[in-house]
Amino acid sequence: ETFYSQAFQKAFSLLKTNSSYVNDDLRKKVILFLTDGKPTDKINITQVLEYEKRSLKSATSKDVVIFAYGIGSHDFSLLRKIAEDTKAEGTEGRFTEITYSDLDQLRLVFSSFYNFFAKTTKYSSHHISAPYFDASGLGEMVTLFVPCFHQEQVIGVAGTDVAFSDLTLDVSLFGGEYSYAFLIDRKTGNVIIHPYMPRLQDEDDDPVILHITALEPESEFKDFILQSMMRGDEGSRNLVSKRYLTTGSGSNSGVEELEVNSTYYWKPIQDTSLSLCIVLAQNETKSRLEIVSVNNKIIKVSTIIIIIIIIGGGGGGGGGGGGGGGGGGGGDGW
């Protein structure tokens, strides 16, 4: 038996419960629906979908777009109508029929929905990946990349790998006993550098993707400082923040939590989506901070990206990639 309504209800539930992230207004609401059969639901699927779409709109102020995929030669007229009746921010839902002979191309076909977001210009600037461990022995790396367009269609991705140590040396060396610096990506709020962020040890370790609020949980930080950083503003603010220090060793080891009067100074890095924040403990305010080299280093990386964009635009860029998914899955688009 094939129950469309249950799959769609679960997908809409995921979309509603995962809409509390910072910058969620930049995320498209997308459902990829894959099935190999006609529905056997005893309830009216159309009515279920209309209710779920209204509920999502009420909860998130967002519409959803559905990309549906049917495997085989069944009558998918209802599924086609379900997909094509959805539209969000100029992107219309689509139905794609996949024959059994094309199953070896399923991943490529299933990921093709990215093509229909290519006209959105707000995502056309550069991106930076989460830190990962290079398998060839170069250690921790990040990849900076940009989409390449031809006639408003994505034709590939151009990028460059940067040693994590080159990008972060000046920031990671800064810090007193209770003072430190961290770097975030304003597009996502994810951490690039933070002293409390777990470090990768080898190529088998998964990339560490952490939102800054996981490491800076104070409400005043989330409500004021982070909002300002995400807008690309600069400023400073005093607040009491927590520090976590390891104590003892072996079986006697533990963690000591301290409350420290601190001043947060933050500023966007020119020509990037990154923002730098310096946290100075009040008893260490005589510490000198030289961030010019950090700015210069990241601006140099931006120059590399611009060169890659020019080359990519002229030569077609690198190969783009996509992912797959399961029937009835819901998620936020990028």
TrEMBL record:
GO MF, one annotated term: voltage-gated calcium channel activity
Alphabetized Pfam families for the sequence: MCP-like_PDC_1, VWA
CDD domains, alphabetized: vWFA
Chain ranges passing through the membrane: none
Cellular component annotations (GO), alphabetically ordered: voltage-gated calcium channel complex
PROSITE patterns (alphabetical): VWFA
Stored PANTHER family: VOLTAGE-DEPENDENT CALCIUM CHANNEL SUBUNIT ALPHA-2/DELTA-RELATED (PTHR10166), VWFA AND CACHE DOMAIN-CONTAINING PROTEIN CG16868 (PTHR10166:SF66)
Entry protein name: Uncharacterized protein
UniProt source species: Paramuricea clavata
